[in-house]
């Protein structure tokens, strides 16, 4: 399942510089295949979130190309995006928040109900469909945000440090839940994080980035067991992968990230 | 899921009971203070034997309210009419302009300075001019009150429409939202708390604008409001009636304030931070 098998994302020599002269990204080459789980790791300011926004099509590169093509149909793949903050509409109930992407595509609540209910079930929040975001804990809000990203049944899921603001216990649980969802579906995930441990635990491929200018300095394939369990976090293989990523970051001149 | 129970509503606890006690105290205390002040006022007037043309006692003002009701009631209706119409007009004008401004930066750049000029020029200085050029007194009064009241609605709504969460904006872009969907589902709800804050300011200002306009219009109107009744009573040294009319104006202001607070709670009470009970 390497990138050579029908890439979903193809980035060639992409660069992004701002009018004030800041170079956010330079010479980025990346190709992501179907059903890969790729993490982008790097220090803050290395442009990993920017790269994600380029992939999402929210920004255009100032040089080079960024293309996302769905292997089977050749169309632009359906994209789900999860931000660092839950980014929910505080005035809308959980159901309406998850319904939003379908509503924007013209589906009424009645038409969208089966899909919304399914997405809520996937993240275990069916009982909370009538709650307002402020009535939920941080982890639950993040689950709503994930349900909203999944409700359109995307082929490409982009996640921008989604669990960074959560406590370790919640984060580990959501990591496992995400892996379980991923293994049952045929999505590709691009996951931005500044945590080496999270990246190695989740991904089968880790791209290490460095700052000024933002660029990819290492592309490591890790082969985690499937399904992973608590033992994996303590295993020698896991430590070795973490070590490899840490070394790559160090070589790029990043002190312990 | 996990440790969270589906019953997310706050159960009745010692804390919520305490909160309820505080809320009751919030209502009772101001009433008590007002009653005490009125009693003191009444006492001083009686004890010093002050004549009514210097300081009428609250009891006399209350009696005047009843005896002069036939004069005060129609005047009150007129002031109320101007105030409410001006407030409605500032909602329509303020929100309408705000939407226009967000749709097009050029419109904003060309028109916003004029809105500011209208806002910073004292209405009392413009009012005589408006009285000359307006087709009739009522429309002149309305225009004055509107000029005073619409700016907070406009400026707050513009700020609100610009305050929508950036990530949500991106999400709307990602899912190909139309302009109309973005306005209705994201910008308008984000702006609502700001608009309501502006509306509460505009509520008080529209009453002030109506009263100032009436003062300036003076005898020009056959339909005279409470402000004119105050002027008229002062010419006749009928101080009790001045106070009675003033009391009605205050009641109007308080009623508008309370009505807008209730409206705010109805519209955003279930989600906006400003409407949540205090912690502690």
Explain this structure to me?
The complex is a heterodimer of chains A (257) and B (280). Chain A is of the alpha/beta class and 257 residues long. Helix content of chain A is 36%, strand content 24%. Chain A contains 8 helices and 9 strands. In chain A, strands 5-6-7-3-8-9 form a 6-stranded mixed sheet, sandwiched between helices. In chain A, strands 2-1-4 form a 3-stranded antiparallel sheet, covered by helices on one side. Chain B has helices at 14-48, 58-67, 69-103, 105-120, 123-133, 137-162, 166-174, 179-217, 226-235, 239-268. The longest helix of chain B has 39 residues, at 179-217. Chain B starts with 13 loop residues before the first helix and ends in a 12-residue tail after the last helix. The chains are: A alpha/beta (257), B mainly alpha (280). The interface between A and B is medium-sized, with 33 and 26 residues.
Based on the model shown, name its key terms.
heterodimer; A: 257 residues; alpha/beta; six-stranded mixed sheet; three-stranded antiparallel sheet; 24% strand; B: 280 residues; mainly alpha; 10 helices; flat; disordered N terminus
The separation of the N and C termini of chain A measures 29 Å
| First-last Cα distance of chain B | 28 Å
H and E order of chain B: HHHHHHHHHH
For the biggest sheet of chain A, the summary is:
6 strands, mixed
Counted beta strands of chain A: 9
**Can you give the helix content of chain B as a percent range?**
over 70%
Strand content of chain A: 15-25%
Rg on CA atoms of chain B, Å? 24 Å
Number of helices of chain A: 8
Q: Which structural category do the helix and sheet elements of chain A fall into?
A: alpha/beta
Query: In oligomeric terms, what are we looking at?
Result: heterodimer
Mean pLDDT of chain B: 88
Global shape of chain A? globular
N-to-C series of helices and strands of chain A: EEEHEEHHHEHEHEEHH
- Helix percent of chain A reads 25-40%
Structural class of chain B: mainly alpha
Low-confidence stretches of chain B: 1-8
How would you sum up the major sheet of chain B? none
Unreliable residue stretches of chain A? none
